[in-house]
Amino acid sequence: MCGEFDISSFPQLTILLRGTCQQTRDAWLIVDLRPLTFMDSTVLRELSTAQEHCEQAGHGLRLVYDQPFISRLLALHGATSQFPRYVTPDNAWAGRQAPKH
User: Fold this and answer.
1) What is the pTM (predicted TM-score) of this model?
2) CA–CA gap between residue 85 and residue 99 (Å, rounded)
3) Where is the STAS domain (predicted)?
4) CA 32, 34, 38, 40: dihedral to nearest 10 degrees?
5) What is the largest CA-CA distance in the chain?
6) pLDDT 10s digits, 35-86
């Protein structure tokens, strides 16, 4: 994922996440958001849905991000505990959450 993700890119994101949740054989689906320059709450809702689908399939979903706007968006929606911050994909695989800001 790169650039801006909002309601206009929602259908592409839905297809990508849902297909990946169903096909992955790994314990975790790691979603690297670091290339994003913008994300709205539409994306957050889809990430929540993808997380539910992953859990139903016996997997988990972890987000990699370092942008303050994503941290603020998650905080505004009360989703920081649902989506803890990982600063690299390697940290996400290992379960090493980033320190709280």
Assistant:
1) 0.85
2) 8
3) 1-96
4) 40
5) 34
6) 999 999 988 988 998 898 888 888 889 999 999 999 999 999 999 999 999 9
Give the Cα separation of 32 and 89 in Å (integer).
Answer: 7
Report d(CA 48, CA 70) in Å as an integer.
14
Report the C-alpha gap between 18 and 67 in whole angstroms. Answer: 24
**Residue keyed to tokens 């988990």:** 60
Structure tokens at 62: 């972890």
| Cβ atoms of residues 85 and 97 within 8 Å | yes
- Residue range 20-43: mean pLDDT, rounded: 82
For the purposes of burial, counting CB atoms within 10 Å of the CB of 42, is it exposed (0-12), middle (13-18) or buried (19 or more)?
A: middle
Placement of tokens 């979603």 in the chain: 31
